[in-house]
Write a structure and sequence with these properties.
Strand content: over 45%
Structural class: mainly beta
Helix content: under 10%
Number of strands: 40
Shape: elongated
Radius of gyration: 41 Å
Number of helices: 3
Distance between the termini: 57 Å
């Protein structure tokens, strides 16, 4: 430990870590650097902005089995106004670690040797370095600091950087503050994974601003902040006065006339969605322009426990809840443009809309310095009931791409979640509105497979028994009794009675066979219960014709005819058979009765019962999807519609 005196005020300062470069004097806020010869005063730095961080100097932790201690931090300001903390951890193995904290998320990185880091001039948003995606290119300004820091801190200095993300929560930053870019590689993590015990209850953080006495600098109205430690800009709900939250206070910018849409869900409302409690912190209206302006509204939600944000979106009375997702988890072939589709967690999302979104109205509090007129390119991809929006924002000092996953919420669910009533109902199909019964195709396929399996099992396992086989001699007597004969010169007829046979109450198949050629025989019959007289009739017309036409053989008809009968009550039965044939030589006829057969007609009927509703529902879905995609600037194949085809925006 090296102890010295501050060159500016003379107060004692300590270099507790041998590899630290500077110490910020706790008394006069001077940044003191140690060199080979002496201490150097780099100038004074602003006081720390209280971001409500649960971390503090000298707090110990353990990461992947190696202990560390937090020695100090710097505060960086984003070009869009946000402030984040970078904590410095001295590890027991001699390494320095960087722990960045922003919007309730933590990132741990280590300086990594790399000779292939691309220069700032050649990188672009959506590009890749190694196997990571470049999410943001920005400029940061050092605004404050405290404690021991392992790099030369110069108050007010600016530097360019690029943030990258990879699968599995991986994270990296390229620092362009030096001639040779520096690479810091690590991952998104949690306080638990860092082995840090802050002594606070989970989710509790110190408030950056005392909310009890805040009031609008323009109209004096109350400003009740729901996320004081994460808010960067507040718009007064009473007069539209805009305030920046800076240096533990409010800085009034200007006032907007209180006009435009009012929130259907009041600011400060609490609601529970998917088991998480949200508070409505801010409200904005945005629009895109095609043949005219198309508007939708977005509610900024704040999760006080997790210190995270989400969005509740209302587009044409269709609601959805949206949250940011890591860009590296999205397979997008055109990061800087609109691909025909992207994939997220194995699910394909089709492109639906691509337009410039503009903020037209804002009220409440936000974690960035939002303002009317702010624009970004928004590309929507859909896979109802979910959708992904890619927003590409660019400015001179900052460029970034963000992906947000939205899930459709029925109006009734929104009312229940946030305790509101009588929200307007939609009249048209929404961009990610799911079709009721959208899984009918899979259900129909499953039922059809089950039907085939059942039919096959019945066909091969059902016991079949031949209960009667009778040969009819139309020239003489039958085997079982004297036939009754009716003489008709044109169409002779003969009636037969069979011997009795027993039935056990199963389905019946009756077959007739006759070796006719270019002729016919007609057999009509009745199965009669000998005890009750119950009668079941049937007809078996047999005909077969063949010949030659131009040397080609042809035939029609069949020498066999079959009829299926429903099960008859168990008992003793006999058959009355009446045969008729054209004048001439009478043919022979064989009649057979089999019990316990499988009736394919039942299968066909069941097939129709499951298929017809599926077809009708399929037609409904086709109409539903046609209505949805009529509002898109793309076809379902991902091709851009012609200007004459139109297509509204339905951003959700």
């Amino acid at each position: 430990m090296a102890v010295a005196n501050c060159p500016s005020c003379g107060a004692a300062i300590e270099f507790a870590v041998g590899s630290s470069i500077v110490v910020v004097c706790d008394y006069c806020r001077s940044v003191v650097a140690r060199t080979d010869r002496a201490l150097e005063d780099l100038g004074k730095i602003a006081a720390i902005v209280d971001t409500g961080s649960p971390l503090q100097r000298n707090l110990p932790g353990k990461y992947r089995g190696v202990g560390f201690r937090l020695t100090g931090r710097t505060q960086m300001r984003h070009s869009m106004g946000g402030v984040w903390d970078e904590w410095y951890a001295a590890f027991d193995d001699g390494r320095w670690g960087w722990i960045a904290e922003a919007q309730g998320r933590y990132y741990v990185t280590f300086k990594t040797a790399a000779t292939d880091v691309p220069p700032l001039a050649v990188i672009e948003i959506g590009g890749t370095y190694r196997d990571m995606v470049i999410d943001e290119i920005g400029k940061a300004t050092l605004v404050s600091g405290e404690g021991e820091i392992p790099w030369r801190v110069e108050p007010g200095s600016e530097f360019d950087y690029a943030d990258l993300s990879g699968t599995g929560e991986r994270f990296a930053t390229i620092d362009y503050s030096e001639d040779s870019p520096l690479l810091f590689h690590g991952e998104q993590t949690t306080l638990a994974a860092l082995g840090i015990n802050t002594g606070l209850e989970p989710g509790r953080r110190g408030a950056r601003i005392t909310t009890e006495k805040l009031s609008c600098s323009n109209c004096g109205g109350p400003l009740n902040l729901v996320a004081p430690d994460a808010t960067e800009r507040v718009v007064c709900p009473n007069c539209g006065g805009i305030h920046d939250v800076a240096d533990s206070g409010l800085r009034y910018l200007n006032a907007l006339a209180k006009k435009g849409p009012q929130p259907l869900i009041p600011l400060g409302s609490k609601g529970t969605v998917d088991g998480e409690e949200w508070i409505v912190a801010g409200f904005m209206q945005r629009f895109v322009t095609f043949d005219r302006k198309y508007y939708w509204t977005e509610y900024l939600l704040f999760n006080a426990k997790a210190k995270s944000f989400g969005w509740l979106v209302d587009s044409d009375q269709h609601w959805s809840i949206a949250r940011a997702i890591p860009s590296a988890d999205v397979s997008d072939p055109l990061r800087n443009d609109a691909a025909s589709s992207v994939t997220y967690k194995g699910k394909k999302f089709k492109v639906f809309q691509d337009a410039k979104a503009t903020v037209s109205h804002v009220v409440g509090e936000f974690y960035w310095r939002v303002e009317v007129g702010e624009t970004s390119r928004a590309v929507d991809f859909i896979a109802p009931p979910e959708g992904i929006t890619k927003e590409i924002a660019g400015s001179k000092n900052s460029r970034e791409v963000n992906y947000t996953l939205a899930r459709y919420l029925p109006v009734a669910d929104v009312e229940k979640a946030f305790g509101v009533k009588s929200l307007p109902r939609p009249s048209a199909v929404g961009m990610i509105q799911p079709f009721v019964g959208h899984n009918i195709g899979g259900l129909w396929a499953s039922l059809l497979i089950a039907l085939f399996v059942i039919a096959f099992l019945l066909a091969v396992t059902r016991s079949r028994t031949e209960v009667l086989r009778e040969s009819l001699d139309l020239t003489g007597e039958s085997s079982w009794g004297e036939p009754v004969t009716t003489t008709n010169a044109a169409q002779p007829t003969r009636v037969f009675f069979t011997k009795p046979f027993n039935l056990t109450g199963k389905n019946l198949r009756v077959e007739a066979y006759s070796p006719v050629t270019n002729s016919w025989v007609y057999v009509a019959g009745d199965i009669v219960n000998e005890k009750s007289g119950l009668l079941e009739g049937f007809d078996l017309p047999v005909e077969f014709y063949e010949g030659y036409d131009g040397g080609e053989h042809w035939s029609e008809g069949s020498r066999t005819r079959t009829v299926f009968l429903s099960a008859l009550p168990a008992g003793s039965y006999a058959m009355r058979l009446e045969a008729q044939w054209p004048a001439g030589n009478p043919p022979s006829v064989m009649v057979r009765v089999t019990e316990g057969v499988f009736r394919w007609s039942h299968f066909i009927l069941a097939f129709l019962l499951i298929t017809v509703p599926a077809i009708l529902l399929g037609l409904r879905r086709f109409t539903f999807e046609a209505s949805r995609w009529s509002e898109s600037m793309y076809t379902q194949m991902g091709t851009l519609r012609s200007a004459t085809e139109g297509g509204d925006d339905d951003d959700e």
